[in-house]
Each structure stands twice: as structure tokens, then as C-alpha cells.
Fold this sequence. Notes:
single chain, 475 residues, alpha/beta, Nucleotidyltransferase, domain 5, 3 domains, eight-stranded mixed β-sheet, 29% helix
Amino acid sequence: MSESFLSVGIDIGTSTTQLVFSRITVDDTASIVSVPMIKIVDKEIVYKSNIYFTPLLSPTEIDGPNVRKIIEEEYKKAKIEAKDVTTGAVIITGETARKKNANEVLNTLSGLAGDFVVATAGPDLEAIIAGKGANVHEFSKDKGVIVANLDVGGGTTNIAVFKNGNVIDTSCLDIGGRLIKIDKDRKIITYISEKIYFLAQSIGLEINVGDKADYEKLKKIAKRMISILEETLGLRKSSKELNTMITNQDLRRDYEIEYISFTGGVADYIHNTSKDIFQYGDIGIILGNSILNSNLVKHLKLYNAKETIRATVVGAGSHTTDISGSTIKYSEEVLPLKNIPILKLTEEDENLPYQEIEKIIADKLKWFSLDEDKQLVALAIKGVRNSNFEEVQNLANSIINGMKEILDFNTPLIVITENDMAKVLGQTLDIRLNNKKPIVCIDSIEVESGDYVDIGKPLLDGSVVPVIVKTLLLN
């Protein structure tokens, strides 16, 4: 028996704000005689909003009320109410994520997002979501190749490298179309990012706010921006400017990239041009046109992404949600749960005697600032495949003893396992705790220490729960 639910993706970027609604379908793909195997079997975009310039109060502040107004109007156009939405993501991306009121804007939107929508941002996660929204991960899997997707937006270029469908590397650079802004009527430069000043100086160019927008000078700056991208991908020797332009970490470059793809607003102008190169009040069109003549497309095979400017928002709406295993144990009254930090045991930890495991859990729990009724922590383990009765009993005892500080609070006990053992482990924990503690024990989910998870309300008659794993919150 299949079940469908609505997911929303909201992307508040450096240049643009937009949203999409997707319908996600889950179904039991196992045979009649097998244990249920619930999987996502279909993802369909049912509504795409208009694309708006992100409203700003100043260079350092987002206009939260106007962002909310945009989203509310698009909900009305789509004829969808917040209560109809089950899952999804609100993503504040690029330079916008660095605005001083980014958190407040997320809070402003929370009521529009239904019961189970994450508010998250970060260049690594944004790069991955854009690549998935553009179908790059599937292309790399189908062809068995390594593909670098460059999501070139207004303020940043987020890079995700996919191999056989999996992300193997990410990076982010301060390279984008709106790092220089232009009054399109007067053709006067109105804004220059600090790093662009630095980059212009590196090639002997002087550029200032108030200057006339000189096409040849701006083209030289765009070409230098692209050469930095070439350095990142290993297509030319690294310069000292590369480190300055990187916002998080450089690519490792210990693999050979075969294909390249482009998403983001700038990607629309790699093959297209415009009579008015300053029609958007920035250098995005110049940057896009310059990519076509660069080593990025001359030395690498080009994969035409399925989405460009909408890649991130499509990815946020369709590719952030996972489904738990179907043999799980939970107390429904505590769901949904949001922004739960992960305490992950290593495989070495799990191979120790059970008495030592409980001590390690207790010690690692001290990493978290525990505050009654406020701080939740989820314990994550790989778990034992095909575990026997004694193994489950011993593991349950270790968890209870190790998580004692959590158990003393008025909060649920949350355990996440990779292997399929959540139901028997959850039932054992419940019995050991005399059925007096809310428990959420789910499996078939991979997380790491430092991740956060959201766990949604049950689907398919309670057989699975939707889960979003968040590797990074705000920058």
C-alpha cells in the first residue's frame, strides 16, 4: 500500500528567493512473504513558484517580513496550506546565510512550513542539495563516473563532487554574479565585495564603487574568478588567491574528474546571452558567458544539468527526506522531533566490552550542554546485524546506564541504528525502563557525530517515519 505526502523546498539565496512543492510517494517494495521494505518510489514536482530577488533591508540584513510575504503568496497560488505539508527544507544560502538576522528570518518562516520542515543552511549541504536537485548524483551513478557540479549563484559557488551516486568531496568559494552590483540604467557600479577588490588587485586592475561599468574590465575580473574555479578543480596550478576565495575547505583533488555540470542562476547564461548584459544589475551574465570559453568546459566533459537556477530549491523539496526502516519502535506522542544532535559511537567503541561501552556513552554525553526539558541527544550506533537475545539485552543495559543523565530528564530516549534492529532493541529498552519513558528507536539511517536530525510523524499506518539528516546548520 503506497502513501504520498507533500514536501516543500524554500531557498532564500544571495540573489533569489523561490519555492517548490513536491509529492513524495513511499511504498512497501518487499514481496508478500518478506519483511516490509519501505522505500521512496517516486518524487514529483507539483508546483514551482516565481523567482524573486531576495528582499534586503541593507547589505547585512534580510527583509524577513517581505520574504514571508513572498512565501505566503506562493502558498496561495499553489492552493496549499501549511498543514498539508509533511516534510521539506528551508535553506538560507550563499551570502544570505551570513546576514546577521538569518536566524530570525528562519523563525519568521517556521509557521509556514508545517509540522516537519527543517531550517538549515551551509555550503556543504547546499552543494549536495543542488547536485541532487539537478540529477547529477543519478548521472554519476548511471555512468559510473566522477562529476563535479558547480552551483554558481549570486554570492558563492558551491561545489559537490559525485562518484557513482555518492558525494566524495565539497567546497565553496566566494565567486558569484552579484559580488559586483551595477545600476543597470546608469551603468554605474554600486557594490563590490571585499574579496573582489582583492582579486582585481591581483591582476593589476583598480575598480571602485561609483565607476562606470566597463565591460572589458569586468570581463577580466570574471575570467580571473573562473581561473580560481579551474585551480580548485585541478585544471591549473593553485595560486595564493585561491585560499582567500575559499569559504570553508578546498577540494582534495586526489581523484580524477571526468564530467562537469553547472547549476545556479549564472548557469543559465553559459550558453545564452542577452542584449543587455547588465539586465540583472550584476555581472552574472558576463560570468556565465566567460565559463563557455574556459578550461572548465574545454578540458572536462559537460553534463547538462536537469535544473539550473532551481536546482537548490528542487533538491531541498525532493532530496532532503529519507525514510527509516520498517521494524522500528517509537512513542508517537513525542513526534515530530527537530534539531536533535547526534552522539555517534565509533565501530571501535562498539567492539569493546559492554561495561566499557556504557562508560564511553556517559563520557561522550558530557560533550553536550544538557539542560532539563531543553536538550535532547540521540545516540547513534551501527548495531549488530542478526543479533541474538543476549547481545540485545547487553546493549540495552549499556545504553540505559550510559544515557542515565538523559533518562533523568523529562525527554525521550532516542536511539538510531544503521543495521535493522530497532524494533527488538526499542522493545527491550522499553521493558527495562518499565514502560515509563518515551522511546524513539529507528534504524536504516546513517548519521555521524556533529549531525542533527529531524524525525517526523509516522507514515504508512505507522510503519516508517520520515527523517532529515542535517550535516550543517548555519554557517
